[in-house]
Amino acid sequence: MTVFLLLLYICGAVYATMMGAFALGFWRARRTPTPPEPTTWPMLSVIVPARDEAGMIAACVESILANDYPEDRFEVIVVDDLSEDETSVIVEHLRQHVNAPSLIGAGEDIGDEVSPERLHLLRMPENLERTRAHKKRAIEKGIAYARGSVILTTDADCVASPTWLRTMAAMFTDLDAQPEAHGVTAFVSGPVLYRVGDRPFLHMQALEFLGLVAVGGGAIGVGRPTICNGANVAYRKDVFEALGGFHGIDHLTSGDDELLMQKIHDTTPHRVRYCAAPAAATVTEPIYTLRAFFEQRRRWASKGAHYPNKRLVALFVAIYGFYLGLLVGGLAWPFVPGLGVFLLGAFALKAIPEALLLWPACRHFDRRWLFGYFLPAQLLHIPYIVLAAAGGALGRYEWKGRRVVR
To answer: Hey, is 235 helix, strand or coil?
Structure first.
């Protein structure tokens, strides 16, 4: 038992240090002022990969088009990935309405070959031949078609705030600088929030997701970009193309967001930034069933072992060991009564730094009441992380009706 407790506390100390660093980084990100608005707004291309999203795609597209960004400075490109419902029909109907002549902008300073359309619909018949990375291929197709110098991506089940485009675009204040120059902003991660449901399961899910948002922002805040969410990221098109797009990470189905962010951070001199402004948030739907929730988390976990930074992989292994130790210790506690005080100390290494990260996040995004679920969520968090990480490591999961490999 001595060896077990020693390893548990070593891994716990690593975890507490990491979470403390993320709390500091999130504090820095929150205090960093949003850059001033540029004199000339960059041309933006918003890529929305979609598969079987007939119930949400209209709200998503309409929320983007309703943004307070100059109409002639952005376009929306929906890439339909072999939907088996009415997704493409709905988008085509919107496209015909949005691209009416009275809604066409002048396209100032974009060039003579500018298409007047603000909303485009692309289809992905080539994805029939793929067994993985369908979303990455859809995004690449959208980018190849895009006119913007800045690419934004969101998911088809998200709704954007009216100030999303303006707030994210302002982060690229150095866009006129040469991409080869040191310190150019190349990638910006923005906040994604769950729409709060009416059940405790949905409330705890929203709290946990908010924690992931804070972790991602905190990691960027301390100069160690680790996780982000493809439902709200932006990057320079020229940097993406110079890196060969998703080349080198396209063997994984997941990872169109954080693996790209890490690739930019690790292989270029350019900057990765976090936009903490609530005005930059997109809002997505929570997961309503346990099975779908577990499949989603398995998908997210599946890419962790493939991070190019092996020190980061080793760190995640230590974190997993900590969670596994807490779970095993909790199951053994009834049979080893003296274990309780040691487990309480180890649990404190988890809960205290997480609280220091989550409470400021709840305040910052005006979701203070979610923190009331912190303690019960803590107990459920441990077994769920152990099972989801193990499931992701097996390499197979279900996503959008497809049984895919990593």
So the answer is: strand
| Nearest residue to 40 via CA among 109, 118, 106, 104 | 109
Helix (H, G, I), strand (E, B) or coil at 326: helix
Closest CA to 88 of 97, 98, 75, 78: 78
Task: Work out the number of other CB atoms within 10 angstroms of the CB of residue 262.
Answer: 23
Tens of pLDDT, residue by residue over 193-241, are 999 878 899 999 999 999 999 999 999 999 999 999 999 999 999 999 9
CA angle 192, 196, 198 (to 5 degrees): 160
Residue type, 266: D
What are the DSSP E strand ranges found in 264-314? 271-274, 282-284
Distance CA 376, CA 305 (A): 29
Residue 109 falls in which region: left (phi positive, over 0), alpha (psi -120 to 50) or beta: left
Q: Kindly list the strands in the beta sheet with 119-123, ordered across the sheet, starting from the edge strand earlier in the chain.
A: 119-123, 74-80, 44-50, 150-153, 233-236, 185-189, 271-274
Largest CA distance in the chain: 77
Residue count of the chain = 406
What type of residue sits at position 123?
R
For the beta carbon of residue 335, count every other beta carbon within 10 angstroms: 7
Q: What is the pLDDT of residues 278-298, one digit of tens each?
A: 999 999 999 888 888 888 888
Distance CA 312, CA 297 (A): 19
Measured at the CA of 202, the angle between CA 157 and CA 230, to 5 degrees, comes to 35
- The string of DSSP letters for 55-85 reads TTHHHHHHHHHTSSS-GGGEEEEEEE-S-SS
Cα torsion through 93, 94, 97, 99, rounded to 10:
-120
